[in-house]
Prior knowledge:
The structure holds 2 protein chains of 2 kinds. By secondary structure, chain A is α/β, with parallel strands linked by helices. Chain A has helices at 55-63, 102-106, 108-112, 117-130, 146-159, 176-193, 204-210, 241-266; strands at 13-24, 27-39, 44-48, 70-75, 78-79, 87-90, 164-168, 196-201, 213-218, 223-229. Chain A starts with 12 loop residues before the first strand and ends with a helix. In chain B, 75% of the residues lie in helices and 0% in strands. Chain B has helices at residues 14-20, 22-51, 59-71, 83-114, 116-129, 138-145, 149-173, 177-185, 190-224, 233-242, 246-274. The radius of gyration of chain B is 24 Å and the shape is globular. Chain A binds chain B through residues 63-65, 82-85, 87-89, 91, 93, 95-101, 108-109, 112-113, 130-132, 140-145, 147-148, 156-157, 160, 162, 175, 177-178, 181, 185, 188, and chain B through 1-4, 6-9, 11, 176, 178-179, 181-188, 192, 197, 200-201, 203, 275-279.
Amino acid sequence: MDEPAAKPRRQFLTVRDVTKRFQIGGTTVEALGRVNLSIDKGEFVCLIGASGCGKSTLLRIIAGFEQPTSGQVDLYEQPVTGPGSDRGMVFQDYALFPWMNVRDNISFGPRQKGMAKKYVAEITDEYLHMVGLEKFADRFPQQLSGGMKQRVAIARVLANECELLLMDEPFGALDAITRESLQLELLEIWARTGVTVIFVTHSVEEAVLLSDRVVVMTAGPGRVEADIAIDLERPREVSAIDFNQVRRDITQRLTSHVVRRDLKAVA
Amino acid sequence: MATIPSELPAAAAAPSALRRSWLPERVRGVLLAIAFPLALVVIWHYLVVMTGTRLVPTPYQVGVMMWDFIFGGIHDDAFSGTILSHLLASMQRVYGGFALAIAIGVPLGLLIGKVPLIRQMLDPTLSLLRPIPVTAWLPLSMIFFGLGPRSAVFLVFLGAFYPILLNTIFGVRSVDIRLFEAAAMLGCDGSRMFRQIVLPAAMPSIFNGLRLAHGFAWILIVVGEMTGVPTGLGSVIMDGRTLSRTDLVITGMIVIGVAGFITDRMIVALNNRILRWSPQHHG
Lengths: 267, 283
């Protein structure tokens, strides 16, 4: 008898030869020059790089908000053609619906699917609980702090059963204490739900603390400079020696490139 | 997942401080609001007395006329005790034209604001028609709708339509594009996008338009009722002018002012209720 053939693993997300050019006024700006990337289900990947390296553009192309100039993004081997429920974006400025209270923001996705009211309420309660905002369910976004708003934004895409969480510098506008607690909450949620995360940041520490893989991007035009696996054990401690070693290593890769480029610009 | 205390919004503590001084503040506001018109009335009275003019009545004479217009029993002429029929006739035309302007202006504004094709098609024409004063339409409207209330409704509609349309378009165009992106990624599209995102997001601006348009509607009712309708506050004012009854003219003006004020308060109350999510949009 033959051994049952190992089921070929379906690729979760692949970015193939993606480029992006913008027309700004009369000039063409090359934001992304041929990016290749593949991400497995359940991975936590950070995109890191200086501003202008195209990391947000890449995230927006994966989300389907922008079309690549050439190349293609596949999710489960199906090409991405526009925004969809399988991918959920968490914006830096939250983008909550200001006229809906916390509960209605979170239940927005399930309500679009036309689920029964009782089921929608169940899902909403579950995610309200997950982000610890039960007591604030009837508040409007304007009545929430930045950290609370970002919790709502995360709950909103998770309640929509997205499989890929796209986060565009989500904690960039928060104070250090709130950022730290949200980072831990995010790791908890990631561990509990098994959701795949692509997280854009420009903080090396944040990237090393959170991710399985750090993808370093460089500008002019944006491309992947390095793809580094972070093998540190979880939970991670930012003051540990091995943590700092990894952080230094990645910082060096980032800055050496920046310095090289700046010197070239001066010369 | 504990909530960090530093994250509790500061807004929670604020209302109590406001509440303590609520009553005196309100009384002060009412007194201030009354003092100015009262001073105007006093000045008006003395100016009439001092100049000895017979063209302008004193505030007292207007008060008498107002009493007669409401209750009758003083002048016993064609206008005694007729306020209700005139007011109701004008209100019908004002709110008819206003409602028509909302019914057409808001959906059209949403479409022009959101759909480039419709904007390219309609915007130039609408922009070309806009500078034409509503009063210039008077002769044509009398031909189209005859000498009657329908002509007045049409003029009110025209006057109220543009503020509503333009504010709706502006409201849609100033919506943060990320809200559309967020809605799209959560599975919202097509006509649901209009109902669930575009309309509520544009609501603050739409209410601005409604308040402006409502003001224009009352302004235009006088013009509209010049077209030879027998009832309505506009026709009362025109009659007062023909009869040289300035007390009647001013009485009509005051009734229009009060009716417009009350409706405006109602729109503001509705505004504050619908926009309770956005305190800075409260009127």
